[in-house]
Design goal:
single chain; 362 residues; alpha+beta; Thrombin, subunit H; 6-stranded antiparallel barrel
Length: 362
């Protein structure tokens, strides 16, 4: 949607309540966007005046023709009347306004503002795979290392997930697994293993998976707790996930207690998150989970959003069948990572953060 169309929709009252709120937030937060909008308003006002003046002039001519006939002439007293001079000034002002608006729109265009409508600025962070390249990389790596492991067809989508408890339940993003034919998880400690969806909350964009092979999780000792209590702005936080083949660590701070468009179910974080980070954990300084990575603002490099841990708990409580709740709520209560260095925390957490591989039929 062009930014000028968005401006016109706002001025003409054609945006929804949510879109108006998003638009007005953008005006407050983005000086360039606000400048372009103000110039657009001036241009529209100028053009409206010109249109009204032309209509008034046409009406006067009609009155004159009715009173004196179509053949009568209006003779100017001076070669250039005040009205004529005013029209020249008006036309010049209008042209300046047009140039100003177009130049600002051009700058906004290069910044990516014209690509998407305001109401669709959260980017889902699943990673689409280029099949041939990934297959070749895996084969080449295995041959170089002298391994003879099975070579799998590349997944359609990849993302991140983490263990909910010691019973083999895993949490990820629902947009990752929607419409999946099969779902696998893996990391450096776990070979590719099959998982199935047991609970999905599309509103929060959450999904809970269960590892099919229960033998895999018999020795699990998830080291982190799920923290439901509110977290303070400015607290140091970090992420672990799979925006590429190997685990990637990111650190920053919690920058807001609400997410995109003041959504109180999410945190805003000052951490770069990328395709593949969807479903990964957001952890506090003590190494405990306070949220699940949801997405980022389109075009922003260091602004991400995470669903709050208490929302996860509420979702399970609301949507899970009674027979499933006891298993899902078997969270680790012990905060065993609190006094460890960050590097030690990560070593213990890594086995319980997974790369999710999703297969879908064409």
């Amino acid at each position: 949607m062009r930014v000028t169309d968005l401006f016109d929709d706002y001025l003409n009252g054609q945006l929804s309540v949510d879109e108006v709120a998003q638009f007005e937030n953008k005006l407050q937060e983005d000086a360039l966007f606000s400048e372009a909008f103000n110039k657009h308003k001036v241009l529209i006002a100028t053009l409206n005046k010109a249109e009204k003046r032309a209509a008034f002039k046409h009406k006067l001519k009609a009155i004159h023709a009715n009173a004196f006939g179509n053949d009568s002439r209006i003779i100017s007293i001076k070669e250039e009347t005040t009205t004529k001079r005013y029209f020249k000034s008006f036309a010049f002002a209008a042209s300046v306004a047009v140039i100003a608006v177009l130049s600002t729109i051009a700058v906004l265009s290069t910044g990516g503002y014209l690509l998407k409508k305001q109401s669709n600025q959260i980017t889902d962070l699943m990673r689409e795979i280029i099949n041939l390249k990934v297959s070749n990389e895996v084969i080449t790596e295995n041959l170089a290392k002298g391994k003879h492991k099975a070579v799998y067809a590349p997944a359609n989508l990849e993302g991140s997930a983490f263990a909910l408890n010691n019973l083999g339940y895993i949490i990820t993003s629902s947009h990752m697994v929607k419409g999946a034919d099969s779902i696998f998880i893996q990391n450096n400690y776990l070979d590719r293993t099959l998982a199935r969806v047991v609970l999905i909350d599309p509103k929060l964009d959450l999904a809970i998976l269960k590892i099919i092979n229960s033998e895999i999780t018999q020795a699990w000792k998830v080291p982190f707790a799920i923290i439901e209590t509110p977290t303070d702005i400015g607290e140091k936080v970090y992420t672990l996930g799979y925006p590429r083949k190997d685990m990637v660590y990111g650190e920053g701070s919690l920058s807001s207690l609400s997410g995109y468009s003041n959504d109180t179910s999410m945190y805003q974080i000052s951490i770069p998150v990328n395709p593949g980070n969807s479903g990964g954990p957001l952890l506090n300084d003590q190494g405990n989970v306070i949220g699940v990575i949801r997405g980022k603002i389109t075009g922003a490099e260091a602004t991400g959003f995470a669903i709050k841990a208490n929302e996860i708990v509420n979702s399970i409580s609301t949507l899970a069948a009674d027979s499933l709740k006891n298993d899902l709520f078997a969270f680790n209560k012990k905060q065993s990572l609190k006094n460890l260095k960050r590097t030690e925390q990560i070593k213990r957490i890594n086995p319980y953060v997974f790369n999710v591989l999703v297969y879908k039929r064409d």
